[in-house]
Amino acid sequence: MKTSRHGMIVYIVLVCAAIPAPVMGFDFPGYVTMRGKIIDADTLKPIEGAVVWAMWDKCWTGVGAGDLCDVYKVKEVLTDANGEWRITGPAGTSDPSIVRRIISFVVSWIEPPRLGYYKPGYFPFLARIPGGDFIARAYVDRSKDLEGILLSRMGNTKEEYARYMEQLDKDQCKKLIPVKDPERKLRELDFDFQYPPKVICVRDIKDSQLRSLYRVIGLKRAVTLEERRKARASLPSMTTSYLSHLPLLKKALEECE
Length: 257
Description:
Elements: H1 2-18, H2 21-24, E1 31-40, E2 51-60, E3 68-78, E4 84-90, H3 98-103, E5 109-110, E6 114-118, E7 134-141, E8 146-153, H4 158-171, E9 174-178, H5 182-187, E10 200-202, H6 207-210, E11 215-219, H7 225-233, H8 237-240, H9 247-254
Parallel strand pairs: 1-11
Antiparallel strand pairs: 1-4, 2-3, 2-5, 2-6, 7-8, 7-11, 8-9, 9-10
């Protein structure tokens, strides 16, 4: 029985080696470096000592209940005096191929990283939720002669958020603000992080392309004691359930108690 199982594993490995990597869904070279800067959403000043973390899940194909996943790796860093940070880790794959799913019973796959940003006294960055925070990425596409900053700013109110999402659903694209040397603009904060009258609608940008782009995250300040408590409580439950893997974040949250 053991011999048959070992023979099957060897057979699967040989099959995998014979199939091209793009078909299998593997990510070669397999690593991505994510970097950026965290600033105050109102003053546009860098925030030092903010916690940035990346979490990767390892997944297997489930039977009748969807994919089965568990935490594979966690990394944390603190932003420097310029608000900058850098994390390198597995690129992961968000859409494993059929072949990749079949062999996941033996060899799991790694999901793309989930990033989080938090600083005591600020609301955590929560994508697709109104609140005044934002994310801006440097984008360059030489093949289309496109260069600029991809800005996602949902607005401060539910009404602004609703208008933003309505326009997003209508356009089905990302808003690019054309500027030269966008990464330098973001690094030096030579940008007002607002939408100008004219933007370019850019389609066919994959999430895997966005992960390696230099980004600026604007965090909204929590002023009152009630806002500070709300900010702490608004961290996703997925994150707080893994605080044992996130000592820097755990320490930051203890400062709010």
